[in-house]
Write a structure and sequence with these properties.
two-stranded antiparallel ribbon, 4 strands, two-stranded antiparallel sheet, mainly alpha, Recoverin, domain 1
Length: 136
């Protein structure tokens, strides 16, 4: 299973958890090359936020991977769950992932997603940017 291999790549101490930074790196690894530097800067800033100094379990990692595999229905749902202007709140993302994809995202995972992809720090995700980053 490729998910297990990718997780174990980051879990060098075999602790069954990975750092928030490693999780964020795995998210942006396949992002649009035109935005990669900006996203990597956001990943580097993870250490500056004490609330994001968390460890991610394999189950959380796998949930996000499952969400990525169901990106097409998620993208359609995002536009239904998001605000009219195409912006998603944390609750919108959790609701869409659960109801459409059957994936439960923990608050830790959602906080990291928002830290990396909420580039203007307004508490919302641009649904278009988020989906585009995950599609690659």
């Amino acid at each position: 299973m490729i998910i297990c291999l990718e997780f174990s790549h980051y879990d060098v101490k075999s602790s069954n958890t990975i750092s928030a930074k490693d999780f964020a790196l795995s998210m942006v690894a396949s992002a649009d090359i035109n935005h990669i530097n900006k996203l990597l800067d956001r990943v580097d800033n993870l250490g500056n936020d004490p609330d994001l100094g968390v460890r991610i379990t394999f189950e959380e990692f796998k949930s996000f991977a499952d969400l990525r595999r169901r990106l097409e229905p998620l993208a359609m749902a995002i536009f239904n769950y998001g605000k009219v202007n195409g912006l998603l709140t944390k609750q919108d993302l959790k609701r869409a992932a659960h109801h459409v994809c059957g994936v439960d995202l923990t608050d830790r995972v959602v906080n990291i997603i928002f830290h990396v992809f909420d580039t203007n720090h307004d508490g919302n995700l641009s649904s278009e940017e988020f989906v585009r980053a995950l599609q690659r």
